[in-house]
Specification:
868 residues; alpha/beta; Rossmann fold; ten-stranded mixed beta sheet; six-stranded parallel beta sheet; 31 helices; 39% helix; 17% strand; disordered C terminus
Length: 868
């Protein structure tokens, strides 16, 4: 029996503001606050991985007392604390623009959150995006609550063995020495909830992390009263097998909603960031059924109205799926509470609900129970509509209800002090308050070339110094001879063109595309007049052996006697390495196989620091590239032969480096400044900084998704969910009687030639069966025809109701003839209610077939959906 207790540092009262700053990770994007922590003890700051709570807890009492008596330090601390209090109280964008909606509560669920290296609860891009999302939520003042898992070991720490093969180490997180706090109730007891797993209940406790104005609640199952296997649920991020994954997702989704309820938080909108959290929809349904005595379909309507879903995966295999037997095992008690047959429950996660052989897919569940869904770039939105169009039979691909909101990055997190000072001097103070204001960013042109270049050179020097320090640490681990350690001081050169590649080492990201022609690469790296150097970093999934082989290839080149000063692989990629790289390199290289990069945010971080992108036209770069702000590899081609694609695109990469990138970098005038390179740097900053940031992204989420979803949920919740019940009953009637609806005839004068500027009048006669004209939308889809007689980029034009005779109604409208050429149109009928989430949410659509017969699914095949 072990009696547990907690020890906290004895901090003098005068230093209480220091602890308050340490426990709000606002400091991670405030350079003045980080300077304050470095001032406490620079060595301890580095040794604790920049964790102020741990650092303060390890300091001797004498040091803390001396700080409490240091007038200069206290002035600095009071200044930072006042800055934090001002930030928390300052009116925000949301309060100014949407102050009437401050009562909304939006819960943001994500499997991982990446804020800072002292909080290792992330693995890569998804987590870093979630972290940047929450930081901008705080900056903008949105009423958002984060929900995630509190991993005891998090993602692994990486090191390479003597052969360059990746090894994994899982150190444990000490939550009591991190900037998070255990939630307790008024009686001092731990706040916890339970989730049901087969044959037992698992208790989940709750931790809180403060991100500026907003909380993030983290769920933890590592409790003594849980079975050992269940304590492991929150041990590792993306660790274990499919059985562990379903348990983690039950805890995140179901446990997360229960934790919010336990804290008295009842969200109007839940944002599922990827499908991992989709079980939250089922728990929201269960709660509404229990608390408001709603039927299952009624509760589904209300919950779907208030759910938002973001997919990040452009390939089917990347979406979590669970076998039907596993779902039956884990939810055999749960589905009974929903009062529906198990097959109905399983059908919620199947593209074809009645297909008993189809596995349960979390993405399908999320799409089915969210009123608003989106991809993370325009290209990814198109890919997602193509991937999931079978869920909406009869709907043209371009109209599949999956929108796109392109990702961004939190500028202050990734911006160097050097460039921040330049922006303050030449852009004025409003660049921080209005990061989306393109007119402010146009002033980048006023920054003197010499000052911009000096700032860039200092950042490159800092990266080289940091890389040498890391390499020395890597060699010391192997007990390397002092001759080898001394040689580290020659690794990299602070004055030559530096290219960076750092991201998750998945094979589709093709980290070694630049290594496919080694004689050509050697000439580039070892050129006496115009040399190039490469800095790599990144982790492979522990089970991804092909990706580990890519890391090994890079590591072997690093040991090549000729190349060891020109190629560096930095072990244990984390947010600290990322900051040094996105600030210090000259070129950011990105070489994914199009269209497998859903967005990719790493390349957005560099332009703020004068870094230029050299990338495949995939993800966000399709939107970001403008011809004068970086380089594109290819023109957006997609290949079926992967080897041929690698050959073509590696050749194009070498061509760009040899003919454009390297010559431009070394093209210097009498003043030794690369004027044309600096011109590209300024164009990159002007075009990327005000657009590809999370403030713009979060504002889009707020206006396009959060507010509509919250208001729709509040609408359906009125009068004890009376509208939700009515909507569910109406949809039930649609499912039962829509077969009665058919387009009897369509009349027009389409057989004659029409002049530009005229209108083509159209009259449609529709048999509505038991539906009133107000319960349908009759639309014309018209556009240019291709050579096969199919409509290409069609426009939808509503027809107006004219008259009725019994169940037959007439609708009329006119197509404006604005462009010459061969055109076509068709007519469709959709169920309609004003309180629908979107016009396709019933899954019903009837098309004109020309013979008056009904079809819901077949005519859409003739309407080619060319996405926007």
């Amino acid at each position: 029996m072990i009696q547990k207790f907690t020890v906290v540092p004895r901090v003098p009262d005068r230093l209480r503001p220091l602890m308050a700053i340490a426990h709000n990770i606002w400091w991670t994007w405030n350079s003045n606050a980080m300077a304050l922590f470095r001032r406490v003890d620079i060595d301890a700051w580095e040794e604790t991985r920049h964790n102020p709570v741990l650092m303060i807890g390890t300091l001797p009492p004498e040091r803390l007392q001396s700080l409490a008596e240091d007038d200069a330090f206290l002035v600095h601390m009071d200044s930072v604390y006042k800055e934090l209090q001002t930030y928390l109280a300052y009116p925000t964008w949301y309060s100014k623009v949407y102050g009437q909606h401050m009562d909304l509560k939006i819960a943001y669920f994500s499997m991982e959150f990446g804020f800072h290296e002292c909080l290792p609860l992330y693995s890569g891009g998804l987590g870093v995006l979630s972290g940047d999302h929450m930081k901008s939520v705080s900056d903008l003042g949105l009423p958002v609550i984060g929900v995630g898992l509190c991993y005891q070991q998090g993602y692994y720490r990486q090191f390479l063995n003597l052969d360059g093969w990746q090894q994994e180490h899982y150190p444990e997180n000490d939550f009591y020495n991190m900037p998070i706090s255990l939630m307790r109730d008024a009686d001092g007891h731990e706040v916890s909830v339970e989730v049901q797993l087969p044959g037992r209940k698992v208790r989940v406790r709750v931790w809180r992390l403060s991100i500026g104005r907003n909380p993030l609640y983290l769920l933890d199952t590592n409790l003594p009263d849980n079975a050992p296997n269940d304590r492991e649920i929150t041990a590792r991020l993306y660790g274990g097998d499919v059985d562990m994954r379903i348990r983690q997702e039950i805890v995140l989704g179901i446990g997360g909603i229960r934790a919010l309820a336990r804290l008295g938080i009842h969200p109007t909108t839940c944002h599922m960031n990827e499908g991992h959290a989709a079980f939250l929809a089922m728990e929201r349904i269960r709660q509404l059924m229990t608390e408001h005595r709603l039927g299952f379909n009624d509760a589904c309507e209300a919950v779907a109205a208030g759910n938002v879903f973001t997919t990040h995966t452009p390939v089917p295999a990347g979406n979590d799926r669970f076998p039907a037997d596993m779902m039956r095992n884990y939810f055999k008690d749960y589905f009974g509470e929903l009062q529906v047959p198990m097959e109905t429950f399983l059908g919620m996660g199947r593209v074809e609900p009645r297909d008993g052989h189809e596995e349960f897919c979390m993405t399908v569940l999320a799409l089915r129970l969210a009123s608003h869904s989106n991809g993370v770039s325009r290209l990814h939105g198109r890919i997602s509509r193509r991937m999931w169009k079978r869920m909406w039979p009869g709907v043209p691909e371009r109209e599949i209800p999956i929108a796109s909101i392109t990702n961004g990055v939190h500028g202050q997190t990734w911006l160097s002090d050097e460039f921040a000072r330049l922006y303050e001097r030449y852009l004025g103070p409003r660049w921080l308050e209005e990061p989306l204001n393109t007119r402010i960013w146009e002033r980048v042109g006023e920054i003197p070339d010499s000052e911009l270049w000096r700032a860039k050179e200092r950042l490159r020097e800092r990266l080289v110094s940091f890389a040498r320090h890391r390499l020395r640490t890597q060699l010391q681990r192997f007990g390397s001879h002092r001759v080898k350690l001394a040689a580290v001081e020659e690794a990299l050169d602070p004055e030559i063109l530096t290219i960076g590649f750092a991201r998750r080492f998945a094979t589709y990201k093709r980290a070694t595309l630049l290594l496919t022609d080694m004689p050509r690469l050697r000439r580039l790296l070892l050129d006496r007049e115009r040399p190039v150097q490469l800095v790599f970093a990144g982790k492979a999934h522990p089970n991804d052996h092909p990706a580990k082989e890519l890391i090994r290839q890079v590591a072997h080149l690093q040991r090549d006697e000729e190349l060891k000063h020109r190629i560096v692989f930095l072990e244990d990629y984390d947010l600290e390495i990322a900051r040094y790289m996105v600030q210090g390199v000259d070129v950011w290289l990105n070489t994914p196989q199009r269209p497998l990069e859903a967005s990719g945010t790493s390349g957005m971080k560099g332009p703020l620091n004068g870094v230029l992108n050299l990338s495949i036209l995939d993800g966000w770069w399709v939107e970001g590239y403008r011809g004068d702000n970086g380089w594109a590899i290819g023109t957006g081609e997609e290949y079926t032969d992967r080897d041929y694609q690698n050959q073509v695109e590696s050749g194009a990469l070498y061509e760009i480096l040899e003919r454009e990138v390297v010559p431009l970098f070394y093209l210097r005038g009498p003043d030794a400044l690369p004027r044309e390179w600096i011109r590209l740097m300024k164009a990159s900053i002007r075009s990327i900084a005000p657009v590809f940031n999370t403030n713009r992204m979060v504002e889009e989420y707020a206006e396009r998704l959060y507010l509509p979803a919250s208001l729709q949920y509040k609408l359906l919740a009125q009068k004890d969910f009376e509208i939700a019940r009515s909507l569910a009953a109406w949809k039930g009637r649609v499912q039962e009687r829509w077969h009665e609806v058919r387009v009897l005839s369509v009349e027009s004068d389409a057989n004659r030639e029409l002049e530009i500027g005229s209108d083509l009048e159209v009259r449609a006669t529709v048999h509505l069966g038991g539906f009133a004209p107000a319960e349908v939308i009759v639309e014309l889809l018209h556009g240019h025809l291709d050579s096969g007689g199919e409509i290409l980029s069609q426009d939808a034009l509503p027809l107006a109701f004219q008259s009725s005779q019994g169940p037959v109604s007439t609708f009329v409208g006119a197509i404006p003839c604005q462009e010459a050429g061969r055109h076509g149109f068709t007519v469709r009928v959709l169920p309609h209610r004003r309180d629908q989430s979107h016009k396709f949410d019933t899954g019903k659509v009837t098309w004109w077939t020309g013979d008056g017969s009904l079809t819901s699914e077949m005519i859409a095949e003739k309407v080619v959906g060319v996405a926007d």
